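Hi R.,

As promised on Friday, here is the backbone we talked about, encoded as structure tokens. Could you run it through your design pipeline when you get a chance and send me back a sequence?
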């Protein structure tokens, strides 16, 4: 486009407004991050704002102003540090979030160099360490200056702090025979980082002291390096990986790979995963590989860095405004985001441990929707002063359970509420206990967890809500993972939630979810039975349903109402009244009704032809295809009768495995004896 055409081009008003808004937001977050040292959004969210702004500025370059946040590389030196000008600028890298962007990067390079698309470009690849970029200046082999990147041109002199890191050589030496001589002057670039273990230790210490933890190891490394007192830096275990050069005098590197191969021979630490690849396809597979092993690394990484290997091409390619054309950061999916803490529920585990679980405004982290995260224990909540309604930084790394990292107190509105830790078990109501020196409250009632599982199993059982696929193991896991505390929770789970259960993949999760949805359409009798009211078995539930005809009427029935019904004694009546008087139970029922539980007429049993009318059956021994109760029900459904004693009136004796005395008696009386297969044929299921 010619300059004139550009000037004439109408830029949509929304674009101009959006660009303005983005700049304002980014500036605010820069301020929070660099000046106040307390960011209010995650790095990934910040990056997303920056990327959007960059994209819009690429589309409409006429909108770029010299003071746009995109025109700055890093931060200005902080007060208290001497400034150091970098001999060569320390540029920042462009990001790619997906494969297409990486392929486009490769294509762009080929276009720029006039190569065809079929030709291969060699790249070096390495993990992108989540740390702080520094420059080490060596003169005649001696470390003379160490600096932060700063704004890319001028950094902070942190030489004394860097000298506390034992893996940074104070002197470069020729440690290998085949190493070139140490040059007269070399600017070595590297990333100072903190290991995950050290990061964890440091944060635990901070939380214990009531200080806010560092959001990530990079912030921790930066915070530790930019201490005015090197003694503090020395206490934090920091490390470095060296990856590049600035100005070099006295040696001529030809490739990036040569740099990475030579550094260790001079005593500089290089990441063990650096690799030379033949083309961009190999770089992409390397990305997948590193993403897979990411969790096993002792330090945090957030992607890989891809660099053109041939340094002579670097010059040809040159740099864009603030980033080189020869390198790219291919990022992983972010693992931290901010969201709102809507509520806290308390889950009881197998050992009785009560864990606070955050209910979050659903948020995407690394391609997964996260709605719950652990809050660890009461001390964690107290020390960090987390409140309901807070914006929180949430982290989900790999297979680890999502966790709350910290609250963002700056975003408080005053409407936040205290988190009240229960004194009684949320499942059984027993008073919770805590051992001295422990952070975890426990329910001392041994039967508690088991009861929760049993209630769930009863609810889902065939004669109750009849939920397929909800057996003992699944019930245990549902309670254990805190997905179900009372049965109403079942109806608020999404199919994705079941993927959290051990042994669940897509299909199984979908099936269980579907079975639960299907169970919403039920009969009043089944529902009453499913509630598991003491003394209310299947027959009693059936009778209550017939007498009251509506759940509401039953819920509001008085002791007198119930006692007036023949067959209901005092114990039963009292149990029913107490159950429905309980606020928790009413809430649970209300939640189920809100979730769409509806009552249909009793299944029309008459629909089945009464083929067994007038026939009486006796069962003895175990059946293979069904329980004896099921078999009995089938006989009754088909119009037949079942009895327990063998007499002349009995038409068939159905004999399963290990039959008892009834079998003998049937033989004596000459009653027809059939096996399970014959029985199945008889009822039309054979
Ligand atoms: Zn309990």
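Update: got your reply. Pasting your designed sequence below so it's all in one thread:
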């Amino acid at each position: 486009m010619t300059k004139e055409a550009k000037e004439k081009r109408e830029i949509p008003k929304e674009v101009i407004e959006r660009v303005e808004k983005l700049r304002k937001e980014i500036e605010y977050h820069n301020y929070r991050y660099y000046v106040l040292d307390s960011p209010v959004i995650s790095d990934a969210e910040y990056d997303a704002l920056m990327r959007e702004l960059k994209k819009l500025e690429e589309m409409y370059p006429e909108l770029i102003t010299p003071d746009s946040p995109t025109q700055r590389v890093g931060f200005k030196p902080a007060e208290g540090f001497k400034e150091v000008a970098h001999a060569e600028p320390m540029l920042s890298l462009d990001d790619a979030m997906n494969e297409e962007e990486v392929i486009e990067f490769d294509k762009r390079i080929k276009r720029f160099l006039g190569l065809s698309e079929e030709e291969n470009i060699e790249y070096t690849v390495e993990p992108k360490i989540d740390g702080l970029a520094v420059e080490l200046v060596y003169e005649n082999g001696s470390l003379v200056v160490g600096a932060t990147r700063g704004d890319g041109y001028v950094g902070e002199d942190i030489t004394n702090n860097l000298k506390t890191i034992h893996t940074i050589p104070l002197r470069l030496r020729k440690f290998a025979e085949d190493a070139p001589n140490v040059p007269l002057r070399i600017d070595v670039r590297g990333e100072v980082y903190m290991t995950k273990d050290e990061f964890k230790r440091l944060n635990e210490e901070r939380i214990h002291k009531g200080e806010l933890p560092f959001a990530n190891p990079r912030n921790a490394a930066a915070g530790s390096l930019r201490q005015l007192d090197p003694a503090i830096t020395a206490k934090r275990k920091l490390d470095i990986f060296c990856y590049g050069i600035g100005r070099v005098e006295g040696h001529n590197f030809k490739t990036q790979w040569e740099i990475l191969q030579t550094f260790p021979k001079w005593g500089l630490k290089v990441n063990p995963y650096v690799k030379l690849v033949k083309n961009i396809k190999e770089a992409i597979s390397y990305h997948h590989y590193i993403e897979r092993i990411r969790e096993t690394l002792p330090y945090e990484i957030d992607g890989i860095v891809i660099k053109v290997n041939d340094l002579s091409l670097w010059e040809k390619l040159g740099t864009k405004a603030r980033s080189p054309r020869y390198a790219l950061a291919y990022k992983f999916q972010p693992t931290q985001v901010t969201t709102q803490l809507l509520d806290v529920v308390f889950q009881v585990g197998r050992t009785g441990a009560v864990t606070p679980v955050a209910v979050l405004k659903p948020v995407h982290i690394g391609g997964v929707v996260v709605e719950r995260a652990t809050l660890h224990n009461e001390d964690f909540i107290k020390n960090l002063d987390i409140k309901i309604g807070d914006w929180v930084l949430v982290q989900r790394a790999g297979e680890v359970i999502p966790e709350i990292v910290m609250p963002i107190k700056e975003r408080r509105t005053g409407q936040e509420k205290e988190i009240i830790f229960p004194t009684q078990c949320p499942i059984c109501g027993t008073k919770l206990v805590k051992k001295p020196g422990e952070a975890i409250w426990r329910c001392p009632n041994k039967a508690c967890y088991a009861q929760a599982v049993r209630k769930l199993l009863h609810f889902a059982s065939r004669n109750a809500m009849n939920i397929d696929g909800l057996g003992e193991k699944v019930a245990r896991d549902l309670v254990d993972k805190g997905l179900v505390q009372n049965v109403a929770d079942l109806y608020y789970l999404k199919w994705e939630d079941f993927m959290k259960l051990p042994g669940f993949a897509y299909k199984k999760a979908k099936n269980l979810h579907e079975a639960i949805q299907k169970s919403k359409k039920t009969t009043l009798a089944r529902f009453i039975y499913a509630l598991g009211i003491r003394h209310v078995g299947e027959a009693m539930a059936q009778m209550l349903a017939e007498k009251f005809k509506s759940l509401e009427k039953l819920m509001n029935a008085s002791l007198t109402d119930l006692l007036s019904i023949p067959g209901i004694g005092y114990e039963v009546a009292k149990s029913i009244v107490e159950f429905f008087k309980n606020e928790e139970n009413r809430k649970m029922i209300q939640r189920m009704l809100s979730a769409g539980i509806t009552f249909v007429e009793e299944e029309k049993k008459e629909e089945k032809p009464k083929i067994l009318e007038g026939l009486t059956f006796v069962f003895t021994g175990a059946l293979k295809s069904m329980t004896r109760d099921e078999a009995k029900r089938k006989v009754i459904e088909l119009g037949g009768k079942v009895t327990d004693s063998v007499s002349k009136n009995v038409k068939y004796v159905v004999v399963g495995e290990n039959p008892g005395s009834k079998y003998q008696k049937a033989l004596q009386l000459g009653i027809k004896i059939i096996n399970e297969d014959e029985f199945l044929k008889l009822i039309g299921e054979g």
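One thing I noticed while checking it: The two ends are 79 Å apart (CA to CA).

Thanks again,
M.
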